[in-house]
Write a structure and sequence with these properties.
10 strands, five-stranded mixed β-sheet, three-stranded antiparallel β-sheet, alpha+beta, disordered N terminus, about 50% helix, disordered C terminus, single chain
């Protein structure tokens, strides 16, 4: 073998293979115990523990170095006094954990070759072997393919249907990406949600193009026969796309009631449009507050002056931290700005007194700002509740929408002029989108054993006269029975699959849903029962389940699947429906961390691999302080404006 190709392979005391290549970088882990220096007669290795020197010329292997390390008393003492240094190093585990760190945090793949990262890891464990960018890229791609097979198998093994969300996003590179997410309740009654695709989507972005794109993604996963619903925002192109998709999916596998409930409109997007309409009438006092916050945030000197004002207020304020300037296209940021400013009222007043450039915010203006904050708080809470991806949300839809309707209805007699001015255009926007409640999402309330028909009756009674209440309640009940009868025709085939297929895949999404704040005045004993004519009425006549923090609606229906098998099938499909497209927006946040101005040349294929693999490994768990993920308010698109 030629000298330049010669490799010396042997085993070290760590149970690994070592490789020393002449004329190239020393890659053996044993050299981590030595400092390499150059003398007149060549390279020498100096033991880090006893300072013993030995030759380390290019033709010298690792045998002498290994033997010295094994016998070095100073090294033995070091290991005894530093137990962590004696941990057995497993290179495969190191590669896996490094890859997971890159995937989770959106770090660049080249991080494995960053000098200071290597130095840090060698300090923590001197046995660490270097990883090349090629190696980590190959590993991540391999994990992507492995987990894609696992996710695909799970999608095909479940006996329930799959609910989708999708949305588009424009990266900092001005290139469009398209996210498709799947939501389903598996055979163990655990809620699952995954980003299936984060695909580069070139123009045009009209309804026909979106339809063909979504269809190709469904075909890629071979799940077009299992789709139940799709949640979208109100862009006009989506309205054109969804009808084509409904017909295509229905032709592959008949949808319940011919796909009557296939299209779900994103509740968070509608709520954003409603509140944004009110913010167009925002009071001058809030505009004045915004200018104060902008002034404070504009320089270090002013920030320091504000911090001094906080300290000088002493016990008069408990505010700590900093003010936040809102983004006018995100209404929840305006709410957060107002809320934090109210906490810092005394410090802000003192700061303004010391700064002659600012207008004073008078007490009556602070009162108006407080009234606006109180008015917006329920909208903020409901948006947060709507936007969950770790628990079912369809059972919260109707209660939240009716609470919003009542809040807007009552606001016309609010003593605050500012609130009344905001509420009027918000009511008009509400009437445009939610004058008719979504029936399929209303069924979620009936499937919640804490509420059922009694809660439905109470909610409508808070707004309508008895005759109207009876009509609305009967409409929902009749539609619920019609869907039940549709399911009953095919329930036997579904139940055979349900008891014959086991789904052992993990799910980290199933957290109990808490609705006490929205339904705090509900009395579960205030409605008379119906005559039991079917399983539907038999279930509705069951005693209410007492609400508590640990209640899990999916565990309830898992237990009821023997007594009410058809209703359980309905529950698995309906409770899996995401009422917002926030899951897709979470993927955009991950994409923004991965694809930024400093990494704009990353291949679209690699962007998709990193975003989707993160979802498959870690779900929708956000980064700490990741406001992009937590924020669900979205800027209205040109299509939204066109639909006004």
């Amino acid at each position: 073998m030629a000298d330049q190709d010669q490799q010396i392979l042997d085993s070290n005391e760590f149970g690994e293979k070592e490789k020393t290549v002449r004329g190239k970088k020393r890659t053996s882990a044993v050299w981590n115990h030595y400092d390499l220096i150059t003398k007149t007669d060549g390279a020498w290795a100096v033991c880090k523990y006893c300072k013993h020197e030995m030759k380390a010329h290019g033709h010298v292997g690792t045998t002498n170095a290994r033997r010295h390390t094994e016998k070095c008393d100073a090294y033995v003492k070091f290991v005894q006094t530093n137990p962590a240094s004696n941990v057995v190093y497993d290179h495969d585990t190191y590669v896996r954990m490094f890859a997971e760190s890159i995937i989770y945090h959106g770090y660049p793949l080249s991080m494995v070759e960053h000098i200071k990262t290597i130095d840090l890891h060698r300090y923590l464990n001197p046995y660490v072997k270097d990883i090349s960018r090629y190696t980590i890229t190959k590993y991540v791609m391999g994990e992507h393919e492995r987990y894609k097979k696992i996710i695909s198998d799970r999608l095909h093994s479940i006996s329930s249907r799959i609910c989708l969300t999708c949305d588009g996003w424009t990266a900092c590179t001005s290139r469009a990406y398209f996210a498709l997410t799947a939501h389903f309740i598996d055979n163990d009654w655990k809620l699952n949600a995954f980003v299936l695709n984060f695909r580069r989507f070139p123009p045009p972005h009209d309804g026909e193009s979106i339809f063909q794109f979504v269809k190709s993604l469904l075909n890629e996963w071979d799940i077009e026969k299992k789709v139940f619903s799709i949640t979208l925002d109100n862009a006009s192109a989506n309205d054109k796309m969804v009808e084509k998709l409904r017909k295509d999916v229905h032709s592959s596998s008949p949808l319940p009631l011919d796909g009557k409930y296939f299209h779900i409109r994103c509740a968070a997007h509608i709520l954003n449009l409603i509140v944004q309409k009110g913010l167009q009438m925002i009071d001058a006092s809030v505009k004045k507050l915004r200018e104060v916050v902008r002034f404070i945030d504009s320089s270090d000197a002013r920030l320091s002056a504000f911090d001094k004002a906080i300290l000088d207020c002493g016990d008069r304020t408990s505010f700590r931290g900093k003010l936040v300037l809102d983004v006018t296209t995100r209404w929840n940021s305006t709410y957060n700005m107002i809320r934090r400013a109210l906490d810092a009222k005394e410090a802000i007043d003192l700061f303004i007194l010391r700064e002659r450039e600012l207008e004073m915010i008078f007490d009556e203006e602070w009162e108006t700002i407080g009234n606006i904050c109180d008015f917006l708080e329920p909208f903020y809470d409901i948006t947060e509740l709507f936007s969950g991806t770790q628990y079912p949300t369809s059972n919260s839809y109707l209660a939240c929408v009716i609470n919003i309707e009542k809040l807007l209805y009552d606001s016309h007699k609010d003593p605050s002029n500012a609130v009344r001015r905001m509420a009027k255009p918000m009511w008009e926007k509400f009437d445009k989108y939610w004058s008719e409640h979504s029936l399929i999402l209303s069924f979620g309330l009936l499937l919640d054993p804490r509420y059922k028909m009694a809660c439905l009756n109470d909610l409508y009674s808070s707004l309508y006269v008895p005759v109207a209440v009876e009509g609305k309640v009967n409409e929902i009940h009749s539609a619920f029975v019609a869907l039940y009868e549709c399911y009953a025709k095919n329930s036997q085939a579904h139940m055979v699959v349900q008891h014959s297929v086991s789904d052992s895949g993990p799910s980290n999404l199933n957290r109990p849903f808490k609705a006490k704040k929205i339904l705090k005045n509900f009395n579960p004993h205030s409605c008379s029962s119906r005559t039991a004519k079917s399983d539907v009425d038999s279930y509705l006549n069951l005693p209410f389940v007492v609400d508590h923090d640990g209640f899990d609606i999916l565990e309830y229906w898992k237990a009821q699947s023997v007594s009410y098998p058809t209703l359980a099938l309905m529950a698995r499909d309906i409770l899996a429906i995401p009422i917002t497209s926030v899951a897709s927006e979470s993927a955009f946040s991950a994409g923004g961390r991965i694809l930024n101005k400093l990494r704009s040349s990353l291949l679209p294929k690699n962007v998709e691999i990193l975003v989707t693999t993160r979802s498959w490994l870690f779900g929708f768990e956000p980064e700490e302080n990741d406001e992009e993920v937590l924020s669900v308010a979205r800027e209205a698109t040109t299509d939204d404006v066109a639909n006004e």
